[in-house]
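In response to the reviewer comment on reproducibility (Comment 2.3), we provide here a single inverse folding case reported in full, input and output, so that an independent group could reproduce the run without further information from us. The structure tokens appear first.
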């Protein structure tokens, strides 16, 4: 009788644990899905403390715009969100993309000098955690980091730390550091969500990392009137097939290379400029998937550097 009672209790405990795990994962998925939507976004960054007292902080950065975060793909363990930046009535830019993958054990990590390396994580390191893979406007790599979603006291937030290249707001303006160590904190708010950052601007050499200055950042996403995005919806409908092909070509690149190193300008243009031009041509000439992939592969291959 005691054996039967113990067995029953054990099964109940296991069942309860399984339900909790499922509930936790659904909470995670709901939080990630809620990042999608129509937003007014403000970007604020300020340098704070530097080890060298002679260092002078660079001016604070502020900008704003409207951003549509489109949930492009969703499966039990993966959610893809594409950001579309709206800067005017008929001015739209394909912005960054974020892929959320559950218990992902392969990361593409930034080193320095436009170089990313694959890293394999152990099962214990990924258990119950989500990787946020962030891509540049041309779907080339930017950074990937892993963290745990926490749901407590009516708060829903996710933390991580990783290395990344210089942000777009600085990479053409300065060269006094070469790695941005990002302290990422994403949390839901009453009217949207906040992307809070505690960053370190690092000078990386072969032998060491040296801190140049710390930085605080806030990207606040506040729900906006959907009607502001009517033009963006039509624009994205014509561009979506092309950018789906871009993602698929990049997936092939990651599968074939243990490291990815990208050139800067080629024939006077950066990679994103080439791919944006190609997107316009594809939409105008109504290319099919095969044509898209062929032309995209040619462009990307021209910017890859053998390591």
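Designed residues, in position order:
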């Amino acid at each position: 009788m005691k054996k039967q009672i113990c067995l029953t209790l054990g099964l109940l405990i296991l069942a309860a644990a399984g339900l909790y795990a499922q509930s936790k994962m659904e909470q995670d998925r709901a939080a990630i899905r809620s990042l999608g939507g129509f937003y007014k976004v403000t970007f604020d960054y300020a340098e704070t403390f530097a080890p060298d007292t002679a260092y002078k902080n660079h001016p604070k950065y502020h900008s704003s715009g409207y951003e549509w975060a489109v949930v492009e793909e969703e499966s039990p363990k993966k959610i893809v969100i594409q950001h579309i930046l709206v800067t005017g009535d008929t001015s739209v830019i394909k912005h960054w993309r974020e892929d959320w993958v559950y218990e992902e054990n392969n990361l593409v990590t930034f080193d320095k000098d436009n170089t990313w390396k694959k890293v394999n994580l152990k099962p214990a390191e990924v258990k119950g955690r989500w990787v946020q893979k962030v891509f540049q406007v041309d779907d080339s790599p930017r950074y990937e980091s892993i963290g745990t979603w926490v749901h407590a006291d009516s708060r829903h937030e996710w933390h991580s730390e990783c290395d990344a290249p210089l942000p777009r707001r600085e990479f053409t303006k300065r060269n006094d550091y070469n790695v941005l160590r990002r302290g990422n904190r994403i949390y839901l708010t009453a009217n949207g969500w906040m992307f809070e950052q505690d960053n370190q601007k690092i000078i990386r050499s072969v032998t060491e990392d040296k801190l140049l200055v710390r930085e605080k950042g806030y990207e606040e996403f506040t729900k906006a009137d959907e009607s502001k995005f009517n033009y963006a919806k039509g624009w994205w409908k014509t561009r979506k097939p092309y950018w789906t092909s871009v993602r698929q070509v990049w997936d092939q690149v990651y599968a074939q290379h243990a490291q990815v190193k990208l050139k800067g300008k080629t024939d006077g243009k950066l990679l994103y400029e080439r791919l944006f031009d190609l997107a316009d041509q594809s939409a105008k000439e109504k290319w099919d998937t095969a044509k898209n992939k062929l032309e995209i592969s040619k462009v990307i291959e021209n910017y890859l550097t053998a390591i």
